Amino acid sequence: MKSFDESSFFYDEVINLIDLRGFEGAIRVIKKHIKIIKNPDDLALAYLNCGFLNDRLGKMSYAIDDFSKSVFFEAKLDIIDIRSKDIPYNARSNSRFKNGDYHAAIEDKRQAKKIRLIEMDKYSELNNTRIDYKNILLGTFLKIDLEPKYNTLIKVSKVEKSKYDLISDYKKLISEVKKKKLIRKLELLSESKYQIGDYKGSIKAIRRAEKYY
Predict the structure, then answer these.
(1) How far apart are CA 58 and CA 24, in angstroms?
(2) pTM
């Protein structure tokens, strides 16, 4: 799947910095080269990568701004072959949750779900090869040889799990049927809390559901 793309030649340097946990330096390299990128797809991806990096640094306001720019440029595209448009919405939702903006966080999460359902219905032939938020949570693409710009996305979006994550341990003991039932139960709980305006409860329930993927 790897091919040369002159718009992302600088990502090798970015990956090296990420491996050294030089997240601020990685952001500077991407932002330095954004001015020469013309393709909306590559612009969206550049800001998406910056958003994840800023989130890792704990700079939620900057992360939200970067994810918003990614959403803006992706809106100019009918379809993206490699990744889902649900990623910046889910990522912005997570940053907004950490920033205490629960209403905006659940709205982003709900919009992300709508987008992914539309994509799965309209572009079903691409769904086995597309990077989406669920694949990010599951680490599906971690060992696949992608272009540097997508390897960057996989690296910066990787979810760092606590070794004391009780849900992660519980997942290993239950069946797929049980997992699906738990996910559905939490999704229904999220919806019921959303309808009564309990946005904090709604987003917490859906984030808990995602832990069972």
Answers:
(1) 11
(2) 0.89
Of the CA atoms within 13 Å of residue 64, those in its CB half-sphere come to 16
- Name the maximum alpha-carbon separation found in the chain: 50
Please tell me the number of Cα atoms within 13 Å of 122 on its side-chain side: 11
86 pLDDT more than 80: yes
- Residue 72: exposed, middle, or buried by beta-carbon count in 10 A (0-12, 13-18, 19+)? middle
pLDDT tens, residue by residue, 43-72 = 999 999 999 999 999 999 999 999 999 999
Q: List the one residue out of 122, 66, 116, 118 whose CA is nearest residue 94.
A: 66
How many CB atoms sit inside 10 A of residue 197's CB?
10
CATH number corresponding to 6-160: 1.25.40.10
